[in-house]
Amino acid sequence: MATRSRPADPARLAPASRTAQRLPAEQLYADELAHLAVHDTLTRPPGWQLSMPAVRSFILGGSVAGQTLRRKMVCAPSLIERSLVTLASQRALLLVGEPGTAKSLLSELLAAAVCGTSTLTVQGSAATTEDHIRYGWNYALLLNQGPSVQALVPSPLLRAMQNGQIARFEEITRCPPEVQDALLSVLSERLLTVPELPAHDTVFAQPGFNLIATANTRDRGVNEMSAALKRRFAFETVLPIADHVSELALVYSEVTRLLAQGGVPVTPNEPLLEVLVTTFRDLRQGVDQEGGATDRLSSVLSTAEAVSVAHAVTLRGHYLRGDNGQPSDLVEALVGTAAKDNADDLKKLRRYIEHRAAKRTGEHWVAFHAARHALPQ
Ligand SMILES: Nc1ncnc2c1ncn2[C@@H]1O[C@H](COP(=O)(O)OP(=O)(O)OP(=O)(O)O)[C@@H](O)[C@H]1O
Ligand SMILES: [Mg+2]
User: 190: domain range?
Assistant: First the structure.
């Protein structure tokens, strides 16, 4: 029987984390991290909780000392290795790529494994100010006592410097460049002075401190980075998953995990996910599986979107009919995903289903083609 969670205590901002909709990687994989820490005998960079090979195994999965670790990221091992070397150096790491290629996921996994926390995060946006990057003040205390250490509200970055941990900066290029430049002195001198405090206190970054930023190539032009700041980052491009079989396996395992996490007792419809992943790949690349040219959509058809659509289709089948999703659910879900930014995309999707899907054999492709009438006119 499903257990009902207790009502939140109004006196506490944060209810028990066991009931959280999504746990950070260090909590979700706490057992794997603890196992690796016990069996990791290799040299760790200063301030790190694990050695580089242990972090690589945590992210890419495999078998370590009798325990199978989940594969959490599909990418070239060299991307992980270069990222780890950067984090152990005096340069910060910038993960760039198309939307939905798991840049945020990789930054979360790296931070969780290297320093045990992935939540020291600044979210970049047009509204981000220097205070979000450096520090702010508790105004009640500030008015009462004047500038004091107690009245100072450290940013996640300042806390990471104090504790020798990894800070994360999501979507850094969505911030105005002059705000981004507040990072310059932190990244080069590795210190941050608080001139308002009577003693002009300076926080010196402790061993283990570094920064992982992410930037979306579609947003990048909005706010370019200064050359000075670029120089302080090593850029790593996170590419979409190259291979069909790996992408399908990832979508299947992610949906299975999301269903289990939500307590939904159903397994994903594998042939339907095959139709979904193939459609996404064909419309993303403009080339179908048989090598023929198809239309390419302007909407982003990322693996992350494929996971969301597959999850939604499975939930729809489960809660509305008691099955695990039908091709007609997929056609309807595609309308809101594939034709988001551009009405032309809807026409391209229709053409794809009418002409390409029609040529494919198999029960699910036939039903997918037959369900094209669910597309809006
Ligand atoms: N190569 C991959 N390995 C593992 N998961 C992936 C991969 N590509 C996409 N995913 C899926 O995408 C989800 C993560 O997407 P994430 O939000 O990290 O992407 P992002 O690149 O940060 O996107 P955005 O640019 O929109 O912020 C994962 O939870 C997973 O389901
Ligand atoms: Mg992201």
Answer: 22-237
CA distance 352 to 276: 13
Å from CA of 110 to ligand 1 middle = 14
Q: Is residue 16 in a domain?
A: no
Q: What is the pLDDT of residues 16-35, one digit of tens each?
A: 566 788 899 999 999 999 99
Closest residue by Cα to atom 16, ligand 1, is 102
Helix ranges (DSSP H) in 100-243: 103-115, 130-133, 139-145, 156-163, 177-180, 183-189, 227-231
Q: Is the C-beta atom of 75 inside 6 A of ligand 1?
A: yes
Domain-located, residue 10: no
Q: The whole model's pTM is what?
A: 0.93
Ligand 1 atom 24: the closest Cα is on which residue? Answer: 99
Kindly state if the Cβ of 301 falls inside 6 Å of ligand 1.
no
Instruction: Report which bound ligand comes closest to the CA of 217.
Output: 1
- Note the pLDDT tens digit of each residue in 116-173: 999 999 999 989 999 999 999 999 999 999 999 999 999 999 999 999 999 999 999 9
| 199 in a structural domain | yes
Residues 6+ apart with CB under 8 A from 15: 8, 9
